[in-house]
Amino acid sequence: MNYKKVLFTCFFLLALVIPVSANATTEKNIIDLSKWQNVGINYSGSEPAPIWKVNSTNTAVTQTLNARPAVFMGDMECANNSVRGSFSVDTTSDNDFVGFVFGYKDSGHFYLFDWKQSDEDFHGLGKQGMSIKKVNTNTSLSDSDLWPTSNTDKVKVLYHNNITYKDQMLYNFTLNFTDKGSFNIVIKQGNTVLDSITIKDSTYTSGKFGFYNYSQEMVTYSVSEFEKLPPVVKVTSTQNEKVDLSWTAVEGATSYNIKRDTTSGGPYTTIGQSTSTTYTDTTVANGTTYYYVVTAVNTGGESENSNEVSAKPIAPAKAPINLVAKANNAKVDLVWSASQSATSYNIKRATTAGGPYTTIGQSTSTTYTDTTVANGTTYYYVVTAVNAGGESENSNEVSARPIAPAKAPINLVAKANNAKVDLVWSASQSATSYNIKRATTAGGPYTTIGQSTSTTYTDTTVANGTTYYYVVTAVNAGGESENSNEVSAKPIAPAKAPINLVAKANNAKVDLVWSASQSATSYNIKRSTTAGGPYTTIGQSTSTTYTDTTVANGTTYYYVVTAVNAGGESENSNEVSATPTNPTVTLEVTSVDKAKLDDEITANIVIHNAVNICAEDLKISYDTSKLQFINAENADGMKIYKEDDIAAGVKRYITACLGKANAANGDKILLKLKFKAIDKGEAKIDITNGRIADNVTLEMDVSQENCGEKTILIEGVKDVNRTGEYTLLDLGIDAWYYGYAAVDTDTSKYDADQIINGSIDDDDLTEIVAQILANTNYSANK
């Protein structure tokens, strides 16, 4: 194709919205293009590489060759910056792509602005006009990805227009790039805006800026500058005679100037200052439209204006008129005349004329149905109109009393207590009162024993042990309903107080147990820190046990228990006390009870009753005449940080857990020691000193009486049938017992468990064969 010459002069104003110093209000951050370099796009084509030449003042760069797609880039971050510049195309021989990249992450991930002078079908149709594209690929790009003005699997076209550029014409542009998932590009010819493009896309919210060239020689880019974006302002709310504003914070700002005018674009007058990112303007008049901008200020001066926003405060709507209420079954319908400028209405209700009223709902029309009413109740309603200016006065008040024929009450329930029966039922529509009826025979006949205007009744004219049958009827002005469902109840005396209450103190808990109380359905557990109370109920139980885990070690607690049934609560049980305590921390050596000469013995150093113990300093002695030390090993979740030989047969270890999940709680192995049995007799391993620490404040010595020791009996080699030497008969005896547990052999005659592991297996037989072969008195079968 015919490549062409383009003069692309691109300069960017880089002046921070908040100046960098007291004298930097208008200072420009000039970009030194000599520090920029060619960045090849991840491209698989065969065109020649571009040639970039920076001028002598380092303020302009020229791409001199009709070449493959390429980027000339520095290290400037686009996020939250405004990039401004200009370019001109000085050629009549070609019509290809000029532009820039931004949000650049790498050669396959960036946004691209390119501008083509006219349509050309080369590697697909490259259309005349400006395009914004998103490049997103981990593989190489080709001409068929970058040339066409259409989507591929690697490049997505976010925007396109058909505006052409003219040769030898100066164009200005602005790129505003935020880290909030949006950016704006404005292209101007002189003071005429050719296009203003806003894109919302959050694929890249940061990245570098660079010049872009594709198939266009002799393109010159020059004088690049950046500046921080000013605050982004929005109207939070418009109300009666006030406007609420908020904006995004600007890095480095110490305060903000709020400016206003009644004409879009100003000139603006400063009306206030704020050190936060909000401001309320109370100097406005309802019905007037106001235009606002905000500037950021620090010791270096004042930023440029933010975006302009507008607001028009408004007076509250007038009160609605002609409110009418219509009562129905379990609902009230309301209707009223519209209030000019209202956007919604609040519906308010009371059960007393004149209020006070409670807001029960909202409506955007002039009707509302209240379905939260009870038949037989008179309700009083008003409505208010709402708009941005606030809420109106109340409308006229209306009333309504929903009603329906009385129906028999349902869901009657009886609960027996001591010398009384509690009744409860569901409300009957339109009932004004209820008759309570009773009999001592199922099905009646019933006698009216009382009335109620609620849905509850307590019958206190009963005797414990007698069964009573109840029905309820609903009454209103229209008469009495049918009977409700029948229920029965047998009042009962309270259970007797529990006896034999016993408390057992443990670590951070107290266990309670007591004898069952006849007829009790549950028990209340009560506690005090003073003998005799007063007591506080701390729990319930349906069994005769309870564990109190809400105690503190070292405090004495006093407990009583009461029995509960339908008749109520009993008297207190006997009082008991308990003082929970923290068990004593002890150190123990665990190992085998017996071993044989040359056996390897493992001795574990174990801590008991630990609570978050994280570090230990231990001194351990052992019988060097019977034991030979082999090594020490880390226990699970533990590490040895210091191992010292203090004296012959005396070793010191400093250990610690590896993280809180491995802290010692309860019982835990701290250290593993390996020994070899070297002589017969009793060999002792003794923890002579121990110091421990937790993760907060505890550091303590474990007393000698709480440091354990282990005595191991080391025996010589003993043949199976105890003749004093190993022969084939020993092997035969163990072969007979193969698979037996050691305790199931004839231990009075035989030592069948040769390796002392609790069972007769291959290891025992292998040991016997080795001893037979070592017996010089044994005559082998030849």
Automatic annotation (TrEMBL):
SMART domains: FN3. Transmembrane segments: none annotated. One of its GO terms (cellular component) is extracellular region. Residues 34-233 form the TSP C-terminal domain. Keywords: Signal. It holds the Pfam family TSP_C. GO terms for molecular function: calcium ion binding; carbohydrate binding. Residues 229-317, 319-406, 408-495, 497-584 form the Fibronectin type-III domain. This is Cellulosome anchoring protein cohesin region. It comes from Ruminiclostridium cellulolyticum (strain ATCC 35319 / DSM 5812 / JCM 6584 / H10).
